[in-house]
Specification:
Blueprint (H helix, E strand, L loop, with lengths): L2 H6 L19 E4 L5 H13 L5 E3 L7 H14 L5 E7 L11 H15 L6 E7 L7 H10 L10 E7 L3 H10 L6 E5 L7 H10 L3 E5 L11 H9 L4 H11 L3 E4 L5 H12 L7 H8 L13
Parallel strand pairs: 1-2, 1-8, 2-3, 3-4, 4-5, 5-6, 6-7, 7-8
Helix pairs in contact: 2-3, 3-4, 4-5, 8-9, 9-10
The structure holds NADP nicotinamide-adenine-dinucleotide phosphate.
NADP nicotinamide-adenine-dinucleotide phosphate binds next to β8 and α10.
Length: about 300
């Protein structure tokens, strides 16, 4: 399939339909933060083959775009009926929270595309702003995808979105955008003060929400407020937190540096109807945002 054919395709098959019955559903994304070298190769390959993941998340900051793309490419070459949604996120070169001009955005896209190339034809590429980098960045991304003839080098970028956008920055972006972000990837756990507020804004504007740091990067897995509730459902805190996010309708960006086969039963449990958090318990979890635990504060 040529590059131009990919851009022209009208209906893509739903990735979940190509996944075998006993693996994760389409709401799961395999995140690759902290994975590199052998650990990336083993875990991402297993996530695709064993876990059935068809969504993969990377970022220029993770410094693994080249390997991620190559592992996905090898998988797709062996699996002609599958396709993968690959997300990368751009940020300033020095990883600082400085503002990005239009030129900075184009340069960042060039760097990421160079790392990801050659992208397999059955990769659907999404690019997100990793965090707020000023008001010029979104119009720059819009220009790249709406003016294809001027930017032919970026024709593989099919969708654009944001990450870590909350409150006024999010509403301002939605109010001024010519193209709405397809997704907002945010820290999503009950202790984050903005998680549910941001979800509500995104839902009312038909922007998908991908949750990251759903397990508080393991920091709060022993917290009593969670352990008691998890015990009532005879589950671990990790499963409880993932299920809470799942019931809120978000996409789950999960990851593992250990063996995927050890984590997979939990992830399957999360998507199963045999585990439903009762409304009263959902309400208790929903009220915990006052505790104000934030891993990533980009404000
Ligand atoms: N947009 C952003 O700014 C942003 C920020 C952070 C992360 N992300 C994305 O989100 C992905 C996930 O985030 P994260 O890894 O930082 O945080 P996380 O999901 O909160 O925590 C990951 C840790 O949870 C553990 N874990 C996974 N499944 C588990 C289970 N069933 N039971 C117990 N522990 C479990 C893993 O341990 P083991 O390694 O031992 O398996 C892993 O180290 C990243 O890979 C990245 O793609 C995006």
């Amino acid at each position: 399939m040529s590059k131009s054919e990919v851009g022209k395709r009208k209906a893509r098959p739903d990735a979940s339909r190509t996944v075998a019955a006993n693996v994760v559903c389409d709401r799961f994304i395999f995140g690759t933060y902290r994975l590199s070298g052998d650990s990336l190769r083993t875990n991402l390959k297993n996530a695709l083959e064993l876990g059935g993941f068809r969504r993969v998340d990377t970022a220029s900051r993770y410094q693994n775009e080249k390997d991620v793309s190559s592992i996905v490419r090898a998988f797709l070459e062996q699996n002609p009926d599958d396709e993968v949604v690959l997300t990368t996120k751009i940020a300033p070169t020095d990883d600082s929270i400085t503002l990005m001009t239009r030129v900075d955005v184009v340069d960042a896209l060039r760097r990421s595309l160079a790392e990801l190339s050659p992208l397999h034809p059955r990769v659907k590429l999404r690019v997100l702003l990793h965090y707020y980098v000023g008001d010029a960045a979104w119009p720059a991304l819009e220009a790249v995808v709406s003016n294809r003839s001027f930017y032919p080098e970026f024709d593989r970028i099919e969708e654009i979105g944001v990450s870590n956008y909350h409150g006024e920055r999010l509403t301002k972006l939605i109010g001024s955008a010519k193209i709405k972000p397809v997704v907002n990837q945010i820290e999503f756990h009950p202790l984050h003060p903005d998680a549910l507020k941001t979800l509500a804004i995104c839902v009312s504007n038909k922007i998908a929400v991908e949750g990251h740091s759903l397990l508080t990067q393991s920091v709060m897995l022993e917290a009593e407020r969670f352990t008691k509730l998890a015990a009532a459902y005879e589950r671990t805190v990790a499963v409880l937190l993932l299920r809470w996010a799942f019931q809120h309708g978000v996409f789950l960006c999960v990851s593992s540096t250990s063996a995927i086969s050890e984590r997979l039963p939990d992830w399957l449990d999360v998507q199963s109807d045999s585990l439903i958090i009762q409304q009263g318990d959902m309400n208790s979890l929903n009220k915990m945002f006052d505790d104000n635990f934030v891993l990533y504060d980009y404000n």
